[in-house]
């Protein structure tokens, strides 16, 4: 009630200031006009301050309040490494360009109020604005390298978008010396003549210590690495074996032949498979760890899981969503033990069409913990592996059979399958990168992928038609402008992309990928096509999944490592038990939008951290290979240079000033560089030979130069080029 009254008074004051007959007044004058009682004066002043802070009204140097004189908006500031920045505003299609002289003390990720200065920037592409006020600081903790001076210290931020060193008072420096990585809390953001001031929260280790580099990235993204005492206490109360009371009412599938198939290093096994052939086709069982039986809603464990949103998989560590005692213990579907599961048992005909399904709480017993490598060897006819797993071989062959059928069904409806090689980075005992190799999907990984996709679709469609609050995995149609740019680019390769009113059907994307399969430009066209598509996210509405060409999709299969899966398990179980009454439906309607938003946000954070760590380790690896030559293909062309990707997935850049033999101009429509004098072109997909010339581990950049052979077939670079 107090909040309602406060908001009502706030609206009244705002309406007064925006009345057409209002003239700018001081605080006392407004109070007198509104007849503010003495006991309400404190609240009245608070309201005026809030209206100013929110950018709704402005106050002059003489203390007079008036409506904002120019168009102002609120958004998030993103600073670039080049000094300028952009502000993204919800509801605005384009970001606003912010000149480095118009930042007004804002730092990267701050929530800011901007004043629009030009509806279209001079280059005709982007609106311009200036920051008039910082409403909320985005980065409150910074990771950086400590440097010591005589009477104080300072920290150089790792994040180059935070464009100021942070002053550390003498009393905060302790015994630290140059080169230590630290986590700093900013206590004062300074001003134009004064640097921000910080307090050291944590010393991560010296920058040369093993694995401190990755820990620094983890801390910079504010990813928690430890669990609190309350969570540990709850974990301690979780049983290490299944209790008999937990089996009541469950479907007993312990006599079904069951396997898990995962990577060699996986310890959190959250899905198991059973498959049998029937007279009409196949019965496929996808059994998922029943994590919700141990992680109760609103418990400390649950709140921490939602806060983390997802497990983070890095080259040297896993930062789990749930403590290892759960994720690797009672929740993991370890072989030779009874485990609680939530199962989706599907009946399919010989053409792979779903004819019926059952979702049930079950108890299972995994017979064998298999790896992708081992199953792939079995399917490729390896006699040693087939002998070792003799009893399971028929099931694996049936799995491959069904997987091929399901893949064809998805292909027929237009599902898009991007098959990019991923990187496997090998570290030594000190955490240094000693090798980078491409990691391709094999027959076994595709089997699990196909079965999980089917289970996720089946569950999503089931609950959509029940009209129950749910969390879906959605993927919107690509942006029309990006699709048109893609079509223009493809015309350079003689490829026509069919559009209907600037929209595209996933089947056209699929046809495109099939057409370029096996060609030199396959990886490049695939990558550009992927960039034209939107990012998948979690939502409460089932608006469809463009990439999979399906109307219904969710994430049901990984509750150990993804919060949305855990969330919908609770809804599924309440539905199965007949406990999803009107009160519980209202409860889920009130929380699922926030759960979806948080999960999407944490997924993006995890992706960014994984990319940053991968870029760092690739740069570290190439640092040992400066001067070496490699063959690669042009994977990107920009105004500042061309990117070249090597067979091991490492990408480096040849700066435009280093392109040989001419002055080159960038053609955005064809993604190419053309020489002014020679007409020579550098374009996407073109094979080139490069030499590694430099590495910047701070920027995570790798520099290449193109090697040109002279007419005798020798290295065409002269002595000056090498110095």
UniProtKB/TrEMBL annotation:
SMART domains according to UniProt: CSP, RNB, S1
PROSITE patterns found in the cross-reference section: S1 (PS50126)
Family: Belongs to the RNR ribonuclease family. RNase R subfamily.
Domain of life: Bacteria
Pfam families noted in UniProt: CSD2 (PF17876), OB_RNB (PF08206), RNB (PF00773), S1 (PF00575)
Keyword hit for RNA-binding: yes
Keywords: Coiled coil, Cytoplasm, Exonuclease, Hydrolase, Nuclease, RNA-binding
Domain S1 motif: 627-707
Keyword field contains Hydrolase: yes
Catalytic activity: Exonucleolytic cleavage in the 3'- to 5'-direction to yield nucleoside 5'-phosphates
InterPro entries: CSD (IPR011129), CSD2 (IPR040476), NA-bd_OB-fold (IPR012340), RNase_B_OB_dom (IPR013223), RNase_II/R (IPR001900), RNase_II/RNase_R (IPR004476), RNase_R (IPR011805), RNR_Ribonuclease (IPR050180)
Function: 3'-5' exoribonuclease that releases 5'-nucleoside monophosphates and is involved in maturation of structured RNAs.
Top EC class, one word: hydrolase
Entry's localization field: Cytoplasm
Protein name: Ribonuclease R
Organism: Anaerostipes hominis
EC number: 3.1.13.1
Gene: rnr
Coiled coil: 592-619
Listed PANTHER family: DIS3-LIKE EXONUCLEASE 2 (PTHR23355:SF9), RIBONUCLEASE (PTHR23355)
GO molecular function: exoribonuclease II activity
């Amino acid at each position: 009630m107090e909040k309602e009254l406060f908001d009502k008074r706030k609206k009244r004051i705002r309406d007064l200031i925006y009345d057409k007959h209002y003239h700018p007044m001081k605080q006392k004058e407004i109070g007198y006009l509104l007849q503010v009682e003495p006991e309400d004066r404190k609240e009245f002043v608070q309201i005026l301050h809030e209206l100013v802070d929110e950018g709704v009204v402005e106050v002059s140097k003489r203390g007079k309040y008036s409506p904002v004189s120019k168009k102002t908006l609120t958004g998030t500031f993103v600073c670039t490494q080049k000094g300028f920045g952009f502000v993204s505003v919800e509801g605005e299609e384009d970001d606003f360009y912010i000149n480095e002289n118009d930042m007004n003390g804002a730092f990267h990720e701050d929530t800011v109020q901007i004043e629009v200065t030009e509806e279209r920037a001079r280059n005709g592409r982007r609106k311009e604005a200036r920051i008039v006020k910082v409403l909320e600081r985005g980065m409150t903790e910074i990771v950086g390298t400590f440097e010591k001076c005589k009477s104080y210290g300072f920290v150089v931020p790792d994040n180059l978008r935070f464009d100021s060193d942070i002053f550390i008072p003498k009393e905060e420096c302790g015994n630290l010396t140059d080169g230590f990585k630290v986590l700093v809390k900013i206590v004062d953001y300074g001003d134009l003549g004064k640097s921000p001031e910080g307090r050291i929260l944590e010393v991560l280790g010296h920058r040369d210590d093993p694995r401190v580099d990755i820990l620094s990235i983890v801390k910079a993204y504010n990813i928690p690495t430890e669990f609190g005492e309350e969570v540990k206490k709850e974990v301690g109360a979780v049983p290490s074996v299944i209790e008999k009371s937990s089996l009541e009412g469950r479907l007993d599938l312990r006599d079904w032949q069951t396997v898990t198939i995962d990577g060699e290093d996986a310890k959190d096994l959250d899905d198991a498979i059973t498959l049998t052939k029937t007279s009409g086709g196949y019965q496929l069982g996808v059994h998922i760890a029943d994590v919700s039986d141990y992680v109760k809603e609103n418990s400390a464990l649950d709140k921490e899981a939602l806060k983390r949103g997802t497990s983070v998989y890095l080259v040297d560590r896993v930062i789990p969503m749930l403590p290892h005692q759960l994720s690797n213990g009672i929740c993991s579907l370890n072989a030779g033990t009874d485990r609680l599961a939530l199962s989706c048992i599907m009946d399919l005909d010989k053409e792979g069409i779903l004819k019926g399904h059952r979702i049930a709480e079950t108890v299972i017993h995994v017979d064998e913990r298999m790896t992708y490598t081992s199953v792939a060897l079995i399917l490729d006819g390896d006699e040693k592996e087939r002998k070792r797993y003799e009893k399971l071989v028929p099931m694996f062959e049936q799995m491959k059979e069904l997987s091929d059928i399901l893949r064809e069904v998805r292909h027929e409806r237009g599902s898009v399958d991007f098959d990019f090689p991923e990187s496997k980075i090998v570290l030594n005992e000190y955490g240094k990168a000693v090798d980078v190799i491409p990691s391709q999907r094999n027959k076994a990984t595709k089997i699990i992928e196909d079965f999980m996709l089917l289970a996720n679709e089946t569950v999503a469609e089931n609950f959509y038609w029940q009209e129950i609050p749910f969390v879906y995995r959605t993927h919107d149609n690509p942006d029309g402008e990006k699709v048109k740019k893609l079509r223009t680019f493809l015309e350079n390769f003689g490829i026509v992309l069919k559009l209907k009113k600037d929209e595209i059907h996933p089947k056209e994307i699929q046809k495109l990928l099939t057409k370029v399969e096996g060609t030199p430009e396959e990886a490049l066209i695939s990558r550009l096509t992927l960039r034209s598509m939107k990012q998948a996210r979690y939502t409460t509405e089932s608006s469809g999944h463009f990439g999979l060409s399906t109307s219904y999709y969710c994430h049901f299969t990984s509750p150990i490592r993804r919060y949305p899966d855990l969330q919908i398990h609770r809804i599924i179980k309440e539905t199965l038990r007949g406990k999803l009454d009107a009160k519980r439906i209202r409860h889920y309607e009130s929380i699922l939008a926030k759960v979806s938003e948080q999960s999407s946000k944490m997924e993006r954070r995890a992706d960014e951290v994984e990319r940053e760590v991968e870029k760092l380790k690739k740069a570290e690896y190439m640092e040992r290979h400066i001067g070496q030559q490699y063959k690669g293909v042009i994977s990107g062309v920009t105004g500042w240079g061309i990117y070249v990707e090597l067979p091991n997935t490492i990408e480096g850049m040849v700066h435009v000033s280093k392109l040989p033999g001419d002055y080159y101009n960038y053609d955005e429509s064809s993604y190419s560089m053309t020489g002014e004098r020679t007409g020579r072109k550098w374009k996407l997909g073109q094979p080139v030979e490069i030499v590694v010339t430099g590495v910047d581990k701070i920027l995570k950049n790798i520099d290449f130069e193109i090697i040109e052979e002279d007419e005798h077939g020798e290295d065409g670079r002269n002595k000056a080029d090498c110095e």
